[in-house]
Amino acid sequence: MRRHDPEVRGFASDNYAGVHPEVLTALALANGGHQGSYGGDVYTAHLQEVFRGHFGPAAEVFPAFNGTGANVTSLQAVTERWGAVICAETAHINVDECGAPERMGGLKLLTVPTPDGKLTPELIDLQAFGFDDEHRAQPQVVSITQTTELGTCYTPEEIKAICDHVHQLGMSVHLDGARIANAAASLGLPLAAFTTEAGVDIVSFGGTKNGLMLGECVVVLDPGRVRAIPHLRKMSMQLASKMRFVSVQFDALLSGDLWLRSASHANAMARRLERGVRAVDGVTVTQRVESNAVFALLPREVSERLQKRYRFYFWNQSTGEVRWMCSFDTTEQDVDGFTAALAEEMTADA
Ligand SMILES: Cc1ncc(COP(=O)(O)O)c(C=O)c1O
């Protein structure tokens, strides 16, 4: 029995969206019969080729359950017991993973404030020191997020500059790609252009926010810098026994253009939303809209009234900044309806 209205959509999170119909079809196709467990199935075997097609011949893919798990597995694979991770203060690993990197991975996070969620070599240097100091947790990896938690997008040149700098210092680069497809769509570039070719060592590849039911992948790009992913994935509780149902979803997403179609659409809806809300007096867009997120400041009472009509979150409780997210199933009508509702609530306030 259906217990929700499938026509109701909001702007709270790309995770609020359901499963893309093409992914549901693929899941049904993978059903039936017996297949090897824990990755010993034909879908997971095929996924290696699919990921190599996107990331180059050295890439190795390890499906996982979720983004937090993919991050914690990846970060452990490029650090030692005394290792630390440099990341932006706003990084998901710092603010939205309940301390999992620290508690489950045993990793200290060395955070850096950034204006737009993006690290630079100069910002990394604020924490990249003390390499010969036994008293300091040793910076061993820099984690960047693409697109960032603030909806901004690194250029390939920016990522390359980070990778060159970080490698010179003897550290590795992890890329949290929960929204990596939105980045490729925004840049108009293949995935390898801002990962493999820029020097990234390991990626948490997101699928859930781009229309999967569940699933993320750890993608090793430089096997020389990464160790023991199979063991770390299991220890981190990320090894799916019926892995074929995670793998087939990525096959559906990445074998054709579904990944890019869905992400491009979500980004286009965010740009439409940005245009709409910028035209409403009293709304300030606070970040560049370079993916599927719009951040804005507006009177708190207006946001609270609007939240009774559409779901969305306050990003910053102290400033009242809000975050509006679009997803693969956001329609132009959703965006225009929301913009009209915002304009109504804004005038009701006057
Ligand atoms: C930047 C980023 N990384 C990782 C994740 C993955 O999180 P989860 O463990 O909920 O799949 C998210 C989800 O919100 C995210 O925004």
Question: What does this entry look like structurally?
Answer:
It is built from 13 helices and eleven strands. It has a seven-stranded mixed β-sheet with strand order 1-7-6-5-4-2-3, with helices on both faces. A hairpin with a 4-residue loop joins strand 10 (313-316) and strand 11. With 350 residues, it is of the alpha/beta class. Pyridoxal-5'-phosphate (PLP) binds next to helix 3.
Offer a few descriptive terms.
single chain; 350 residues; 7-stranded mixed β-sheet; 4-stranded antiparallel β-sheet; 11 strands; globular; binds pyridoxal-5'-phosphate
Summarize the structure.
The protein has 13 helices and 11 strands. With 350 residues, it is an alpha/beta fold. A 7-stranded mixed sheet has the order 1-7-6-5-4-2-3, with helices on both faces. A 4-stranded antiparallel sheet has the order 8-9-11-10.
Q: Cα distance, first to last residue?
A: 44 Å
Number of beta-strand segments: 11
**Share in β-strands:** 15-25%
SSE order, one letter for each helix or strand: HHEHEHHEHEHEHEEHHHEEHEEH
What is the count of helical runs? 13
Question: Strand order across the biggest sheet?
Answer: 1-7-6-5-4-2-3
| Main beta-sheet strand count, sense and barrel state | 7 strands, mixed
Estimate percent helicity: 25-40%
Give the structural class: alpha/beta
Q: What Rg is obtained from the alpha carbons, in whole angstroms?
A: 20 Å
Mean pLDDT metric? 97
> Uncertain spans, ≥5 residues at pLDDT below 50?
none
What's the assembly state of these chains? single chain
Which term fits the overall shape? globular
Q: Identify every distinct bound molecule in the structure, by name, code or SMILES.
A: pyridoxal-5'-phosphate
